Structure formats: C-alpha cells, structure tokens
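Agenda item 2: pyridoxal-5'-phosphate complex prediction
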Amino acid sequence: MNQNILNMKPSGIRRFTALAKATPGCKMLTIGEPDFDTPAPIREAAARAMESGLTHYAPNRGTDSLRKAIADYETKRGMECTAENILVTVGATGALNTALTGILNPGDEVIIPIPAFPLYESITVAAGAKPVFLDLTKTGFQITKEALEAVITPKTRAIILNSPNNPTGCVLSESSLDLVAESAQKHDFYIICDNVYAALSAEKVPDLTLRPALRSRCILCQSFSKPWAMTGWRLGWLAAPAALIDKFTLLQAAQIASVPTFLQKAAETALQVDVAGMAAVYRKRREYVCARLDRMGLAYPKPEGAFYVFPDISRFGLRSEEFCIRLIEEGGLAAVPGSCFGVEGHIRLSYCYSDEELRESLDRLERFIRSL
Ligand SMILES: Cc1ncc(COP(=O)(O)O)c(C=O)c1O
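Presented output:
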C-alpha cells in the first residue's frame, strides 16, 4: 500500500450516522445534505439529454457549453472569467482533489483553519503533504494575524478557506480575508476557496475570489450539490487561472477522464434555477434551531450560512465523542462530535430535516442535557 493512504482516517460523520441507524428509534441531525429533491426542470433536462444521445465521452475539461455557462455565472457573481478558467469536476470533492493533488509536492504544507470539513485533511495526507491546523475556536471563529503568522513556514503551499463554514455556519469577515490575502501575497501561497455553501446565503458573503489582485493565486472549488440539491449527481467545478486549468485537465484526464455528458447538459439548466426558495427554508429552520438552543442555554458561534449549528458543550465536561455516544444511547439522538472537524467542546447539528424532525430532535437534546 501507498503509505500516504495508510495514514488516512475514515469519516467520523458517516460513523456516527451509521451508529444512529443501528440504534432503534434514534433520530439524527448528522447529515449535511439537502432533504429537498433536485428541482424538476433539472431532472427533466437530464432525461432529455440522455434520450437525445448525449451518452458519449465529454472533453476532459467539461463540455464547452457548460464551461461557458459556468463562466457566465461566475462573471455575473463578480469573478470575471471565461470558459478557459473552468474545469467541470465530480463535485467539489473532485475539485478539491484535483486542485490539491495538482499543486502539492511531498512535504508541502497546507494551512487548514479548524473546525474544518475532514476532506481537506484526507486529500492533503493522500497527496503526501502535511496539514497544518489553524485553530479558530479561541478567536471567535475568525482569523487573527498572530495565529496565522504562527503557522506559516517556507513550506506553506496553500490555505483552504470554507465560508460559510461546515461545521459552524460562520462566515469569515473581510478583515479575516484581508489577513489571508496579505499573507498569501507576502509568502506566495495559493488560496483555495471552498465556497459550496455561498449560493445559499441571502447576503453577499465576503469572498477572496472576487478580488482581481488575487486572481493568480485563488482556486475556487464549487458544487452543484448543496444549492440545487444535487448531491448524488456528483457535479462541481473548479475556477482558476487558465494555465493551472490546463495542467489540472491533464490530471483529471488521468483520474476520471471526464464527467458524464448528459449530466453536464442538465447542469446548464441548474444554473438557471433560482435557489432563493430553498435558501429561505434553511434560514427559517436556522432561526428555529438557534431559538431552541438559546432556550436550552447552549451557546454557539453565530451561523450565517450553510445548514449547520455548532453548539458549545464544554460545560458538561465530556469529550465531544463521548457526549455524542451518550446522546445516542441515552437521548435517542445522533449529532456529530466536534472532534470529527478537528476541535473539542462542540457538536455539529445539521438542520437539513423537516420541521417535525427538528422539533422532536431538539426536544430530545433538551431532555438529554437536563439529565447531565
Ligand atoms: C465544505 C464542504 N466542501 C465540499 C463538500 C463536498 O461536496 P460535493 O458533494 O460537491 O463533493 C462538502 C460536502 O459536504 C462540504 O461540506
């Protein structure tokens, strides 16, 4: 076996979901995927595309028409680009894989602000590089100059930003981003922006991909999964300088050849579908979950996007994993321990569930913490 692969860890999120499923009657707030079905116009476009014979290989970098549609979408959003800047990928997972594998050499370092989606660590380790964690739990889930400078070394090749964040729902402020921009320019490293939750936010999220001065070092990883409820379609994209996209295309050709052709056609339709309705539902659920946590006296960093809340459980004196195991066994509810995202003292609750499921689950959480 490749030693790097032996160093990879299994997903704790899936482990806790499996534990909940194996426990009769257990509710869960573990899953980070929309409970909506993919909107009908997108499903119909895929069926039509398949029937019309779009069943042959697509170009390695994606079809011309989808890359152009994505470039127009990004340009409209404020990141001016053309189809030359776009690679169609297998979800944001594919985009992150291609971007990180494409830029990293063994021994390079990648700064990962934590709490973080565990995939960043996995890919970095698989690439033979070293994850360097920047703990944001002591700095209000924002980046400070001292903390950032303390983790930069001559081997730093990239930082990965995820805003709105999984697992906290927090958004990085302009001043956090200013610090990253300044350091990246000074020490010459890439900024990988995992913006998979940005399209679901009502307000404009501060975003380094919108700054022209950073264009040469920003790599945007984006997904159809979350905004358009298309997790199972495995579609995303990567936006970066054209010279990088040319090289990443060689890598993608070796990894997956290309993304299914008829799905790319349907993705063009997705880009036309307004997601404001779904975003409004998530916002309402977020307000409900936060109000319930307030009533329970559980503190949490203020979520402004994604579909997660990250309550502080440190006062119970239990490690997050122990808290979550007891919550399943004694409280009949599954949540994901903060340790799965690299930090202690918190649990992640997802609100990708119906109002009824949320109400019952939060009743159970309330009863459980009263019992502690
Ligand atoms: C922060 C973050 N990035 C990337 C992904 C991967 O998304 P995709 O389905 O596009 O591969 C997820 C999925 O949960 C995520 O939460």
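Discussion summary: The chain has two domains: 3-30+275-371, 40-270.
Owner for follow-up: CH.
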